[in-house]
Design goal:
This protein is mainly beta. Helices cover 12% and strands 46% of the residues. The radius of gyration is 34 Å and the shape is extended. This is Flagellar L-ring protein.
Length: 235
């Protein structure tokens, strides 16, 4: 009885480990998605040009009076995401194999399975081996994705060659469902437009994720017990 109670308590705790059932999922703290885990890039260091302090012109400005582009760590840049992808694949495979082998032999003193002549004591035998295998597979993929969003990202790092590492996160909570948009990547200064925005296809090493968490998302996927069962059972 004690073991049954322990198992029941563990199941209840596992079910309550997710977002609050009554109030729904909570929003993440501001700044949580800024830090990006990445491997160091093999970028060569470029020696910066010496600054002329007697001049009113700054070498890191493209316009004399205004500079609206993000350039330093902490600056904000707008990322425009317009994904309209369509993929269609149709694969078929057919493989078959048929083999047959015949073997006959004779000898003195027959053994089990041989034909033995009683008068001479000589025996003869034969062996037939046949195998046949076939494999046939067919698969198709038809996928269409559309996504049009804009998100403000922060410059988190300036690489030695002048490129900018950006990271941004956006969360919207509607009816106990949180929609989450994350983006990270590397941007060149020349790809940033005059309105301080950049298109998603200009971002190198882009990592874009759009999903959600909440009651609707929970209903769209199997329970955690079923997921564990699917991982453990190989059949």
């Amino acid at each position: 009885m004690k073991k049954i109670c322990t198992i029941a308590v563990l199941l209840v705790m596992g079910g309550c480990s997710h977002d609050n059932i009554i109030t729904g999922p909570e929003l993440s703290p501001v700044g949580e998605g800024i830090v990006v885990n990445r491997q160091p890039l093999p970028v060569s260091f470029v020696e910066p040009e010496p600054k002329t302090f007697q001049s009113l012109w700054s070498g890191n400005k493209q316009v004399l009076f205004t500079d609206r582009k993000a350039r330093q760590v902490g600056d904000v840049i707008t990322v425009n995401i317009q994904i309209n992808d369509k993929a269609q694949f149709d694969n078929q495979s057919d493989r078959s194999r048929d083999s047959k082998s015949d073997l006959s032999f004779g000898g003195f003193l027959g053994f089990g399975g041989f034909n033995v002549e009683k008068e001479s004591g000589e025996g003869s035998g034969g062996l037939n081996v046949a195998s046949k295998t076939s494999t046939k597979g067919e698969g198709s993929i038809d996928r269409s994705e559309k996504l049009r969003l804009s998100i403000a990202a922060l410059v988190t790092e300036e690489l030695p060659n002048g490129n900018l590492m950006i990271s941004g996160s956006q969360e919207v909570k509607v009816n106990n469902e949180v929609r989450v948009l994350n983006i990270a990547g590397i941007v060149r200064l020349s790809d940033i437009s005059t309105d301080n925005s950049v298109s998603y296809d200009k971002i190198a090493e882009a990592r874009i994720s759009y999903g959600g968490r909440g009651r609707i998302s929970d209903m769209q996927q199997p329970a955690w017990g079923q997921r564990i069962y699917d991982k453990v059972v190989p059949f």
